[in-house]
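Fold sample X.
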Amino acid sequence: MKAAILHGKHALTVETVPDAALQAPGDAVVRVVVAGICGTDLHGYRGLPGPVTGPRCGHEFVGVVEDIGGEVSTLRPGTMVVAPFNFADGTCSACLTGSHNACAAGGMFGVQGDGAQAEAVRVPFADANLVAVPVDENDERLPSLLTLTDTMATGLHAIKTGRVAPGSSVAVVGDGPVGMCAVLAARDAGAARIILVGRHEARLSKGKEFGATDTFNAQGSEGVAESVDYVHTATQGVGADVVVECGGGPQAQDTAFAMCRAGGAVCVMGSPPIGDVTPVFLRGITLTGGLTPARAYLPELVERVLAGTLAPGSIFEKTVALDDIVSGYEAMDARTASKVLVLP
């Protein structure tokens, strides 16, 4: 079968690799119908620190079950399924409390498991991870379903852990796909004021479509400071109840703390490391967020997409074939697309 292979910085090829195959009785083999390129993949492509180091890559996919192990009881070949980006055993104490991301037996596709930017994927603990969806391979909702594997689940995780309530004020730092999905989740949670801060006018405009009540373009040398002032002005000098940080790194976190009201919450959804957390102590700010237990949110999110009440699929700005996946990475690297859908 074909799969994307990362050899190093800006060195990505599509090669023939051994077919995905069952290795344990709880496994399933899933033929990939649609896959995504994530910002985490882009970090690896750029040679930056992070979990994606190659050779296999990709952790977002929707597909059709092709084969199952002898202990798989909830799935049958031919079933369309959505997979969380991080697989887990579903039985440990972490999984049973909804923290699938902390499962000691689990991992991330494309890192500890098969890469999803391929024609097929072996899925460990298939019963615990795969969620069946009653759609076919031509369903127009496939892009929205694909967002649930990671990006939309991550946006929802921020809003859930930040305990956004009806009437809340929310600031979202970062206008990439996760930021967009956090805006969408904040809107659905009933937030009264949703301020999206970014540096790309087209994305900020899309943020309005997703539910942002305000947007602020933080370009320029004073953009960060001005964005903090904007949030405080918009919240009568108090600061936002909840700030969702999607940029990654200490500078973005510092900005989030500065935007947050005393006693509020900052949800760190960007990449580590975590910077200075003094505001947590001095200003009573709750620090939350972190790696998303995507599987915990999939049933709720799938139900809403199928019902037509959630449609985040427009975050995909470009579609490429697997054979042409390099062009998808190049588009994201050049910032001409914020997220790319891949068709094997």
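Fold sample Y, listed below.
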Amino acid sequence: MLTARAYVAPSATDPLAPSTIERRDVGPHDVLVEIKFAGICHSDIHTVRGDWGPAPYPLTVGHEIAGIVSAVGGEVTKHAVGDRAGVGCLVNSCRECLNCRRGEEQYCLKGGVGTYAAVDVDGTITQGGYCSHIVVNEDFVLRIPQSIDLAAAAPLLCAGITTYSPLRHWGAGPGKKVAIVGMGGLGHMAVKFAAALGAEVTVLSQSLAKQEDGKRLGADEYLATSDPRTFELLENRFDLIVNTVSAAVDVNKYLSLLALDGTLVNVGAPPEPLPVAAFTLFGNRRSFAGSSIGSISQTQEMLDYCAEQGIACEIEVISAEAINEAWERVLASDVRYRFVIDIATLPQP
């Protein structure tokens, strides 16, 4: 077993604190990644604080992981020592169900193995990336292109793929009108991707506080949802709306903005239900859908696309001792646009 330095949540209410965790020995098909940077995702906070159900404590979270391969198993063929590597939200799946065989292991019918708070293949609870090392099966390790800054690459493993996947699936591109709800960690990446794909992009945010950023990142329009005239102005306009907000919103108001055969896709994951009026869907043959992360192959496609297009997350790098403060700032929407932990600052045990 390998002992790794970590920042650990002891309970749903206590602050995260420095500690150590155990990693399994590197198996024949495993890769050991020395973690250099880990992004802070709102999901980390939801999980630890029990918003989505009970969590197993003590728990190390983090599924936006960027580092360097430091060891590989004897049968590994996809990665080598010294490679730049990423690990996202998934570290294994059953490999046998219909969805896995189709290459959509993020929708594993038997339940994929999440990077943290899940039961691993050896029966242990998975621990995430707020730590110095992680051991992962080679099939779930991504290659980070040289042209992407390693710190800025980390959030691509969740915030990036979570927005890239629905934009690709629902065909964002030239001639399509796309709205992005929210301008946070996910939203700012959705704006970048939708603009790069050639869509006409509108940001819908509570206020105009980030309007300048939105335009800089590629938005054509930026409107405030706190102004009721916004919903009148934009009625029946969009082919696709991606809602990135992790809080309850009035879904029916946003559905009314869809054009014929338009789709509202939720990627934000609020704990509250989102009621939908059936008659709102009938008009314009509208659809309300959800999207998780992308597959491993699509995540690699996304990383390569980012390298080609010069796309990366807007980040604020912090030390490990600032994690608890950063969490509070995430909850207050006080970050532009993703916190990334410099893992070198983890204290020695």
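Sample Y note: The chain is about 25% helix and 25% strand.
Also: The radius of gyration is 20 Å.
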